[in-house]
Write a structure and sequence with these properties.
Layout lengths: L1 H14 L11 E17 L9 E3 L4 E12 L4 E18 L5 E18 L5 E14 L10 E15 L3 E12 L31 E20 L6 E5 L1
Antiparallel strand pairs: 1-3, 1-9, 2-4, 3-4, 4-5, 5-6, 6-7, 7-8, 8-9, 9-10
């Protein structure tokens, strides 16, 4: 809660005295690069009732990416982001000293619908299509290669200029796909070679979730301007 309070106070303070951009200005095109760090949990209902295994609720998650987007008039925008996300999950046996931490990385293509205030504060939501690039589990063949996620985020500029911002915000991601292919045969045991992520009874779907603090550098490279005299449109680049 302290981090959230600092975020809101900092963004609100940074908004005071800003020049306006989004709602009364032309359509802007921008490039963005950034990343974030936070926490991940691979949600699975079976662990709440399992007498053999437990999952950790504190696991590192981080990601980075590059984005190209368009901010239209009246505070609406569209963006495409290409990046990578790394998620981890720790499991422990309740009856033995066995433990395992699984880490996987994905390559992500994200399509975002954005709302932008005239001071640069934003909210965004959209689908993310991911493919697993690395997986530390010895049972990685049992994981589905392609995943569909839902991404939601919000934040605002800490440093604001007419064509340059440094934004600070939060991002949440939820994997709507089943992480593991339960149709493949498997054995359950206490060794890394046979145990991968599921509690043995019952078998439930696994859906990773993460929350990250994000910092992004945003460069508004130019905008479309329409001449009042003849209605001709041109792209003006900084």
């Amino acid at each position: 809660m302290r981090i959230l309070s600092v975020l809101f106070v900092s963004v609100a303070s940074a908004q005071k005295g800003k020049p306006k951009r989004a709602q009364k200005e032309p359509t802007w095109v921008y490039l963005e690069a950034g990343g974030g760090y936070g926490n991940s949990m691979w949600l699975n209902d079976a662990f709440s009732t399992s007498s053999n295994y437990k999952m950790s609720y504190a696991n590192p998650a981080y990601g980075f990416g590059a984005k190209v987007g368009v901010d239209f008039r009246f505070g609406v925008g569209l963006a495409f982001e290409f990046g990578s996300t790394t998620l981890a999950q720790k499991y422990d046996s309740k009856n033995t000293s066995w433990t395992e931490t699984i880490q996987l990385s994905t390559l992500d293509k994200t399509f975002l619908l954005r709302g932008i205030s005239d001071g640069g504060t934003y909210i965004e939501v959209g689908p993310q299509f991911s493919s697993i690039s690395t997986n530390s589990s010895s049972n990685s063949q049992k994981y589905n290669d392609n995943l569909t996620n839902i991404v939601f985020g919000f934040g605002g500029p800490m440093i604001y200029h007419q064509n340059f911002d440094i934004n600070f915000g939060l991002r949440f991601g939820y994997c709507a796909s089943e992480l593991v292919n339960n149709d493949l045969p498997f054995d359950i045991g206490l060794g890394d070679s046979v145990y991968y992520i599921l509690a043995p009874d019952p078998i439930e779907p696994t859906h990773p979730f993460y929350a990250q603090i994000r910092v992004n550098v945003n460069w508004h490279i130019g905008y479309f301007q329409t001449a009042k005299c003849d209605g001709h449109s041109a792209f003006l680049m900084f």
